[in-house]
Amino acid sequence: MSMTIRVEPSGSPAATGERRAGRASGASSGNPSGLATALALAPALIVLAYVFALPIVIMGSYSLRPFSGLAQAGPGWTLANYGKFFGDLFYWGIVADTLLLGAIVVAISAVIAYPPAYFLARTTSRWRSLLVFIVISPLLISVIIRNLGWIPLLGRNGLVNTVILGLGLSSEPLALLNNFTGVVIGLVHALVPFMILSLMIAIRRIGVDLEEAATGLGAGPFERFRLIVLPLSKSGLLAGCLIVFTLSISAFTTVAMMGGKRVLLMATYAEQQVRSGLNYPVGATIAMVLLALTALFSLSALRLLRERR
Amino acid sequence: MRRVFGAAIAALLTLGALGPASAQQQSDVTLRVASAGGPFTEAVRRNVADRFTRKTGIKVQFIDGNNPDHLAKIIASKGRTPPYDVAITDKATQDSAIANGLLLKLDPELVPHLSELVDGVRHKEGYGPQFLLVDRGIVYNAEKFKEAGIPEPTSWLDLWNPKLAGKISIPDIAQANGPGFLIQINRVVGGNETDLEKGIRKIAELKVHSYYSSTVQVEALLPTGELWAANMPNGRAWALIDKGLPLKFVVPKEGSVGNPTTIDVVGGTKYPREAQLFVDAALSPLAQLGLSYDVPYGPTNKLLEPILAADPDHSRKFPWTQDQLAKIHAPDWASYVARQNETLDLWNRLIRR
């Protein structure tokens, strides 16, 4: 027997209690005036404008200028760089590969992240903080060291291949490094913590009593997940997917180190053009396209998240 | 005995070449030298900079990086004080820098050792000379080759042996050795330098383990046996061989493409005189001899010829005789750089994806 349980996301007593308290404190301190807010934000905004916005504007201007020599942008304005980029299927292919990488990493991360996220959200063990720390720990290591650590594991004579060959699962060592597979492994390892944290926070907000009620009505663990946890953690899932996706499509170091110069994605292509080819107009064009893609996905996801509320 | 004799000659030559001894001087100047980093910078520091500072009081600061990075920084600083006073780069970078009007011609009065250099290494228009001679070839694991029944390589095309599939590493086009390898393979398959497509297509057929972006990657994988062969410059290859690994280095019979290390004074430097004195110190016989023992690249000071001849165990590691130099093909680097965009693009389309 199956029942559809429709619940308001904010239905749990704990959540309503928190919000009432929040509203009370907000009312007592009062809203700060617009001018005070502006003045308080001004220093940070000025720094951001100089350090962040201005370089992007300069880079954007490079993408609109012709190539005139090494490490420089020529005079005059032109849309030729964008025309060349979008007019050639080869570059569309690079964009497609980049987005494909993002999608694959997101899919794998989401599947891997749910069990630990659920466990961490529900556990009352006193080791919980330590376990959360262990989840975040890959992020504490420098990205270069983290990727270097994969070499003895994934290499042709590495640990993984030794085990696989030893167990007879394959007659030839698997190519897990210096290719797209290696990049996926490296990125999933680095970005799953974001997904786990995002899901964990979302699952914590789901009242335990909802799941207990479902169990009482006869739902098994998979049904509980499908009917309660998954729908109610959608905002966390979306946020996690957004973070993992945007970080994957703009990833450079992991792609460069795990891809072995065989994987050409937007970030590594931009690096090749700017640092080796010293071709600033083309490099800037690639960077602006990547920026636009990232902005597009971020804004769409944020829109979806807001509608969900 | 021969080495002691050789060292004694070196010392005498240096004293003679330096002219009247000068007392320890003081100076406020710090020269900034662009270099490649790692053991190379250490070797230049030990053999050139330290002695130079002791003698003249001028301090030397090394700024390490890749050649394209150095070039980009110098180009970006055009019209203002450049970030370096001296640049130790390679011929390809030097030609680009000259084309952009970034380097200073040397005054032979300030750089007297220029007259002692081997034929053909001085720059025709008076810019910096070739500083160290580099040969590029194949370094291979002789043991693994023997076990697999592969004959030792004598030709560049031996890399395409199917038994070596997945076991060789060649430089990525963006790495310093990349263009040289491409131009050489292009020569072997009968292409001409203005159109490198034949070379790129040939390289696309090669089943590599990886395209390295740093020789460090090759140096890590050769000892473990994951790599059996790689295209490397002679200095790095011999550094590995001298560690006792079962490796051998050979320059294949078709020859190699030259991209020697060059030393230049950057235009617009605040210290042109001091910079040229440093260049002179780098070209002195004693400095060059010491450098060749630390990083086995070929010295360009011909006063060292009798010493090198007396120590064949050492001098076999690098090119130094006129015959060897004649065999190294010097491409037109300026035109390679001019066509770099197309070459990179073709490499991306045929090899990278």
Main attributes of the structure:
heterodimer, A: 309 residues, mainly alpha, MetI-like fold, 0% strand, B: 353 residues, alpha/beta, D-Maltodextrin-Binding Protein, domain 2, 2 domains, seven-stranded mixed β-sheet, five-stranded mixed β-sheet, 16 helices, 43% helix, thiamine binding (chain B), ABC transporter substrate-binding protein (chain B), periplasm (chain B)
Mean pLDDT of chain A: 87
Largest interface: chains, residues each: A-B, 27 and 29 residues
H/E element order of chain A: HHHHHHHHHHHHHHH
Can you summarize the main beta sheet of chain B? 7 strands, mixed
Count of all domains of chain A: 1
Through-space gap between termini of chain A? 31 Å
What are the low-pLDDT stretches of chain A, counting only 5+ consecutive residues below 50?
Answer: 10-28
**Which architecture name of chain A does CATH use?**
Orthogonal Bundle
CATH topology of chain A: MetI-like fold
Helix content of chain A: over 70%
Shape of chain A: globular
Roughly what fraction of the amino acids of chain B lie in strands? 15-25%
Give the radius of gyration of chain B.
21 Å
Biggest sheet overview of chain A: none
Number of strands of chain B: 14
The overall number of domains of chain B is 2
According to CATH, the fold-level topology of the largest domain in chain B is D-Maltodextrin-Binding Protein, domain 2
Q: What CATH architecture label of the largest domain in chain B applies? A: 3-Layer(aba) Sandwich
Structural class of chain B: alpha/beta
Number of helices of chain A: 15
